[in-house]
Amino acid sequence: MLWGFLEGLLGHTCPGCGGKLDAPLLCSTCRQGLKAFAAGEMVYLGLYGRVGGMVRALKYGRRFGLAPLLAEPLAEAVLAQGWGLSGVTAIPTLLPRLVVRGYNPPELLGRILAARLGLPYLRVLRRARYTPSQPTRGRARRRLPEDLFVPVLRVEGSWLLVDDVLTSGATFFRAKEALLKAGANRVYGVFLAVRDPGALGPYR
């Protein structure tokens, strides 16, 4: 098929397992293995060691077509929780990063999730400060400013907050605080990957 020829020509392999693609974007085995998990007030696709390749392909490889595939099991898991959500938003990025990359992966995923869930998607938060990426630092070393995110809209009800990777929980915690300040009475999280399983519990 044409897609197979083109992806082969580009040197693409399956971002899930690194093997040969027998279907567009993600091999049939990895497609069948997609399943989301729930932990308290969070839903995630898997630990980074298992799904990190798919995250990197979406985040850095510009393989946008992966987003609907990955959103499907996440949406199913969210619906199963019965959270009674009012809307969906995502962790925002700074404008320079958005200009360089051309898109914000959490927002791309959030918009698809909102459509699957039949909910509105709104840009409720703005990122007010730059912080360096700290993907491998433990929770004890991540101290982010309280005003990292600021609300730009008023909301109400329960909201779904989307990010691509949960590392220490610090970024999500600051965004959750800002979303509560915006008027949400409860905030739930959705992630593609989790680096530190300990961050799935209440963050301190």
Automatic annotation (TrEMBL):
Protein name per the record: ComF family protein
Superkingdom, taxonomy of origin: Bacteria
PANTHER family: DNA UTILIZATION PROTEIN YHGH (PTHR47505:SF1)
Species of the source: Thermus antranikianii
InterPro entries reported in the protein's UniProt record: ComF/GntX_DNA_util-trans, PRTase-like, PRTase_dom
Family: Belongs to the ComF/GntX family.
